[in-house]
């Protein structure tokens, strides 16, 4: 009964089981943008305020998307091993890879992070297309759905929220449409991609390569995924820089201070 505030992360969230045991709870401050593991309905029903940390992490996550795109498409993980293992001297030149310049980038979910990815892709002279539920005032091609976007694109970056609304959005047909020359990057949530279908496609060559910051199972992703050479992996570290984690922590504290001072919250979740 003495607990009035909870601080949590996107990965941990806060379930109804705990919310129900905190009768004095007034605010949940989540250090993440994604709140799909937080029972928002339970909070709403009790009038409990919820805050997250948008904007401050956008650039780092967009950087991670571009890094994974280059890692996967230019086979940087294998190239690194080629040098370290001495294979370069023993076996010679590393195989040629597809380029990024001038190719089509499909962005699934053109929100804050999606638009920051688009800005970076413009500097790579990529042609940009997107899917979002509502049209955006942007100079990019809007495709009707994920499958059409994947069929159009050379590389597809997933930047939607996670949760029930986007579960399995990148389905087996979407992955097939991206094709053997295609690169899939996911910095959103593992749940948005049909992971078994992606693994099968990567193993058979039906999908060219993938760069993944997020997984269906974290922190121990499917071993079948880890065994594939055409995958670049990152431990859900899109926002994992010193500067951004400091800014996120600051935002959590500022929201709590605002709440307990009776001031407007900095970043309430609707
Ligand atoms: P945002 O500004 O809310 O953008 C999300 C976009 O996704 C919105 O523009 C929304 O547009 C679109 N969207 C939602 N449902 C969709 C659907 N079914 N089909 C297509 N588009 C859909 O959020 P953000 O700040 O960019 O963050 C996006 C997500 O990135 C977060 O929710 C989180 O899961 C993830 N994230 C990951 C990391 C990491 O470390 N890897 C860090 C931060 C965030 P419409 O409503 O117009 O469709």
Describe this structure in words.
The chain is of the alpha/beta class and 270 residues long. The chain contains eleven helices and ten strands. The strands form two sheets. The chain has a seven-stranded parallel sheet with strand order 6-5-4-7-8-9-10, with helices on both faces. A three-stranded parallel sheet has the order 1-2-3, sandwiched between helices. Helix 3 crosses helix 6 and helix 7 (146-152) runs parallel beside helix 8. The longest helix has 20 residues, at 242-261. NADP nicotinamide-adenine-dinucleotide phosphate is lined by residues 33-34, 54, 57, 61, 108-114, 131-134, 159-162, 165-166, 169, 187-189, 213-214, 236, 238-239.
Give the CA-based shape.
Answer: elongated
What is the end-to-end distance? 26 Å
Share of helix, binned = 25-40%
**Series of H and E elements:** EHEHEHHHEHEEHEHEHEHEH
Strand order within the widest sheet?
6-5-4-7-8-9-10
Q: Structural class from helices and strands?
A: alpha/beta
* Tally of strands: 10
Strand coverage percent: 5-15%
Regions with little confidence, pLDDT below 50 for 5+ residues: none
Bound molecules: NADP nicotinamide-adenine-dinucleotide phosphate
Q: Tell me the radius of gyration.
A: 20 Å
Biggest sheet features: 7 strands, parallel
Query: Can you give the mean pLDDT?
Result: 98
Please tally the helical runs, counting DSSP H or I stretches of 4 or more residues. 11
